[in-house]
Structure formats: C-alpha cells, structure tokens
Amino acid sequence: MRRPKIIFLTAVAVVIGSVAWQFGAWKIANMNLQEEMRDIASQAGSHIGFVAPLTDDELTRTIILKAKDHGIELQPDQITIRRTSAGERSTLYLAADYTVPVNLLLFSFYLHFTPTSERKGM
C-alpha cells in the first residue's frame, strides 16, 4: 500500500518539476530578450554620433539574432518597430510577440510572451 503512494507522489513531483523548469527557463530567456531589446532601443551610440542609427530591417535582424541566442525563434512579422521621429534623435519602441511550447509526456501547452523595450513602473 505504501509503495504505490510513493511512486505516485514521485511521478507528480517529477511532472511539477518539469513544468517549473521549462516555465522558468522560458521566463528567464524572455527577460534576457527584453533587456537586449531595451539596450537596442536606447541607441546609445547613435545619440552621441558614434554610429549611424539602424534601419528597421537591421533592427529586425538584430532582434531575431538576439532572440536566437536565448533559444527563441522569431520571424520578422512577430517584431514591432516604431520610431517617434527620424534621424539621430529618434526614440524607438521595440516589441515582440511569440509563443513557446511546454512539452510533457502526455500533453503540451504554450506560453505567450510579449517583451518590449518599454520600462514599466519607472
């Protein structure tokens, strides 16, 4: 009687641990991508005249590469780029919208993330 209970509780713990591990890994990857997007949007080099501002296509490619570094697959249509003005003094808004799978033995579900370059609550 005691052995089946231990096996069942161990199986439940493994499933919960697996979900928590996958969720935590994706959450950290999303947070890292969001920080990268904030860094890109700050355009620190272009504001002081050190480098030319990036075009929308260059920004899209950069975000896709940064996402790939974190294990996130993005397509260009999942990225939003808005500029408040043109030239060196422009302010950028960057956003991405994507889902990632969480796979368990018997079923899967998706987590949805929307990282942006905005700083919320500041």
Proportion of beta-strand residues: 15-25%
Q: Which stretches are poorly predicted, pLDDT < 50 over at least 5 residues? A: none
Question: In total, how many beta strands?
Answer: 4
Helix content: 40-55%
Mean pLDDT score, rounded?
86
Terminal-residue CA separation? 56 Å
Structural class: alpha+beta
General shape: elongated
- Note the main sheet: 2 strands, antiparallel
Work out the radius of gyration: 20 Å
How would you describe this protein?
With 122 residues, this protein is of the alpha+beta class. It is built from three helices and four strands; from the N terminus they run H-H-H-E-E-E-E. A two-stranded antiparallel sheet has the order 1-2. The chain has a two-stranded antiparallel ribbon with strand order 3-4. The longest helix is centred in the N-terminal third of the chain and has 41 residues, at 2-42. The mean pLDDT is 86.
